[in-house]
Amino acid sequence: MPVETAPLRPVPGPRGLPWLGNLPAFGKDPLAFLTRLRDAGDAVTWSLGPRRSLFLSHPQHIAEFLGSRGGAYDVLRIGWAMHQLVGESVLLTAGAEWRRKRGMVQPTVRPRQVRRFARTMVDSALAAVGGWRDGDRFDLRREMTLITQRIVLRTLFGNDLGDRTQALGEAMATAERAVATEIRGLPLILPPWVPLPYRRRHLGAVATIDAEMRRLIDARRAGADGGDGAGADGGQGGDLLTRLLAARDEEGRPLSAKEVQDEAVTLWAAGHETTSTALTWTWYLLSRSPEARARLDDEVDRVLGGRPPTEEDYERLVWTRQIVKESLRMYPPVWLVPAVAKEGVVLGGRAIPAGTTVWCSQWTVHRDPRWFRDPQVFRPERWDADAPDVIPEHAWFPFGGGSRGCIGARFAQMEAALLIAAVAQRFHLDVTPKEATPRMGMVIQPAVPLIATVRARSRP
After folding, report:
1. Angle between helix 257-287 and 140-157 (nearest 10)
2. Are 439 and 281 in contact, with CB atoms under 8 Å apart?
3. Mean predicted lDDT score pLDDT of the chain
4. SS3 content of the chain, % helix, strand, coil (to 5)
5. Could you tell me if 280 and 141 are in contact, meaning their C-beta atoms sit under 8 angstroms apart?
6. How far apart are CA 174 and CA 142, in angstroms?
7. PANTHER family per the record (predicted)?
8. What mean pLDDT do residues 154-159 have?
9. Which of 28, 239, 266, 281 has its Cα between 20 and 30 A from that of 458?
10. DSSP state of 190
11. 279 with 144: CB under 8 angstroms?
């Protein structure tokens, strides 16, 4: 029987300022502000600048919201910087155009395709680990970014980009800082014609990214390799760019060159930025949880027996997958989901005025003590099949949900689990500082660099 949705009874949130609304409080500390909204009630009204907003915290309301986003809501084009970066990709389109693009992009990351990339994921991890030595120290997020960037370049473009990789990575880092600048302050609601220094830097970074995307697409259309290395699928044309170029809609039309470019940038940005951040937080949590790390050691030794992990091992690495799931609960890279209600939207039996921006936050729901016992504690065992606590559906939604859920969710979870297993076979990573605070931008990152000391494992 379907579960009846809890009634929606909005309560007023904190009083805002004229024109700015609650933007100053939100920008000062977004996670703390959203947590206060959650604690005020399951549905709270507030305002981000002039936007009339409704913040949801109950899993049933979130399930209803995410499940009906395809037709009942418009995309919130929040911020100038994000639109400059990803253009009119599936991330920011709506209606018939979104359905067309989604239908063409989604098949590129179906489970069968993701499984083909497992070897690329593991090989990229082993290439990095092969250069580590006992006692080495490095910036953990930077090292994870190098690995995931290599993976996404090989799976997306079928090759490495050689010297161009660093420039592309630096441009993406600049773009990410621009997105963070907007989210945290007044630039979020300033018109795009206002000249601000970060906007000039952002346009330069986007120009670098777009030029490289165009070069790769033009080379692929011309039948050239377009890069500096061997294809991720042994020259079989199985990379995501090839599939984007070959995709056709129901009328037999391909994506235009600009549409391919926008989707490639989106897949590249999402494909390494979110996973590298998730891995960074995972090693941080494992460093502080010796029992969980010991159980990980036992599992990789037992399941893998000293050989590299493969796609076939993914389902058998049960504890490893639970570590990933718990890390995504505590530090979900994507931390906020907004959409704009159209005419006739109903939530929890209550009509939502058209134009209202509806929000929910992975961070606040994942750390709600009503759904998770000891929510501030890293406990992968809460995801055991026989765990006593029942976790409501949509109390965990790091990849969103419904028709607009992340199309790369399977890719990201497999990538994280296989990379963790490949590293854990050989090393422990002891991470400082002992207590890390998050910083919000395009994803939730550590506020300061996390420095990892490499410790070689003693294996039986």
Report:
1. 150
2. no
3. 89
4. 50, 10, 35
5. yes
6. 14
7. CYTOCHROME P450, CYTOCHROME P450 12A4, MITOCHONDRIAL-RELATED
8. 82
9. 281
10. S
11. yes
Burial of 196 (0-12, 13-18, 19+ CB in 10 A): middle
Tokens of 221: 């259309």
pLDDT cut 90: percent of the chain above it: 61
**Tokens matching residue 2:** 């379907």
User: Pairing mode, if any, of strands 73-74 and 137-139?
Assistant: unpaired
How far from each other are the two terminal CA atoms of the chain, in whole angstroms?
Answer: 51
Q: Compute the distance between CA of residue 368 and CA of residue 376 in angstroms, rounded to an integer.
A: 9
Burial class (CB in 10 A: 0-12, 13-18, 19+), 200: exposed
Q: What is the pTM of this model?
A: 0.92
Q: What is the C-alpha to C-alpha distance for residues 72 and 76, in angstroms, rounded to an integer?
A: 13
Look at residue 332 and tell me whether its pLDDT is greater than 90: yes
Q: Which residue has the tokens 């890719």?
A: 411
Coil, helix or strand at residue 384: coil
Query: Cα separation of 298 and 56, whole Å?
Result: 40
CA distances from 132 to 137, 425, 449 (A): 9, 13, 19
Q: What is the pLDDT of residues 446-455, one digit of tens each?
A: 999 999 999 9
Question: What pLDDT does 237 receive?
Answer: 52
Half-sphere exposure of 203 (CA within 13 A, CB side): 8
Distance of alpha carbon 374 from alpha carbon 377, whole angstroms: 6
Q: Pairing state of beta strands 51-56 and 357-360? A: parallel
Query: Burial code of 286-298, b = ≥16 C-beta within 10 A, e = fewer?
Result: bbebeebbebbbe
Residue 426 contacts residue 457 (beta carbons within 8 Å): yes
pLDDT tens-digit series, residues 379-428: 999 999 999 999 999 999 999 988 888 888 999 999 999 999 999 999 99
Mean pLDDT of 214-235: 61
Given a cut of 80, is residue 30 above it in pLDDT?
yes
Q: Could you identify the residue written with the tokens 């690495």?
A: 317
Whose structure tokens read 């660099």? 449
Count of residues for the chain?
Answer: 460
pLDDT tens by residue, 63-108:
999 988 767 898 887 778 988 999 999 888 888 888 899 889 888 7
Q: Which domains does the chain have, with CATH numbers?
A: 11-456 (1.10.630.10)
Average confidence (pLDDT) over 363-379:
97
CB atoms inside a 10 Å sphere around CB 75:
16
The residue with tokens 């907007």 is: 182
Cα within 13 Å of Cα(127), Cβ side: 13
